[in-house]
Amino acid sequence: DGGRATLRAAYAYALAPTITAVSPAPGIVQGGTAVTLTGTSFGTTGVPTVTVGGRAALCVARLSDTTITFVAPSSAITGPRDVEVTPATRGGSATPPGGFTYVTATT
After folding, report:
1. CB 29 within 8 A of CB 78
2. Distance CA 82, CA 93 (A)
3. Of 10, 21, 86, 100, whose CB count within 10 A is highest?
4. 17 touches 94 (CB < 8 A)
5. Which pLDDT band, with edges at 50, 70 and 90, does 11 fall under?
6. DSSP letters spanning 37-105
7. DSSP assignment letter at 24
8. Phi and psi (nearest 5°) for 59?
9. In the chain, pLDDT over 70 holds for what percent of residues?
10. What angle do CA 86, 89, 94 make, to 5 degrees?
11. pLDDT at 6 over 90
12. Biggest CA-to-CA distance, the chain
């Protein structure tokens, strides 16, 4: 018949997440530092995936579309590591290079 059908608003573009702050930025190599990420587009449902230097973060919680908390995993060496967030409900990921720095514990 050559007809045409349109389904309006059938697809919505999601904004990619961003990370604007990592607090605190340093943590000890033994792991266990409680960290808060601030940013945008972290999602409104589900638990995002968070890695630090490629290692899975612990106890990840999405508090809002702009705030995530987690516990940093341990690291074999000191120095800066990338923090990557991938929301559970949106495409894309955010990675501020060297966003978290592992330091030697002080006594």
Report:
1. yes
2. 12
3. 100
4. yes
5. low
6. EEEE---SSS--EEEETTEEPEEEEEEETTEEEEEPPP-SS-EEE-EEEE-SSSS--B--TT-EEEEPP
7. S
8. 50, 45
9. 93
10. 25
11. no
12. 80
pLDDT value of position 36: 97
* Residue 56 near residue 73, CB atoms below 8 Å: yes
The residues near 93 (Cβ < 8 Å, ≥ 6 apart) are 16, 17, 84, 85, 86, 87
Whose tokens are 């495409």? That residue is 91
Which pair of structure tokens corresponds to residue 62?
A: 């999405």
Amino acid at 7: L
Q: What global pTM score does this model have? A: 0.85
Contacts of 64 (CB under 8 A, 6+ apart): 42
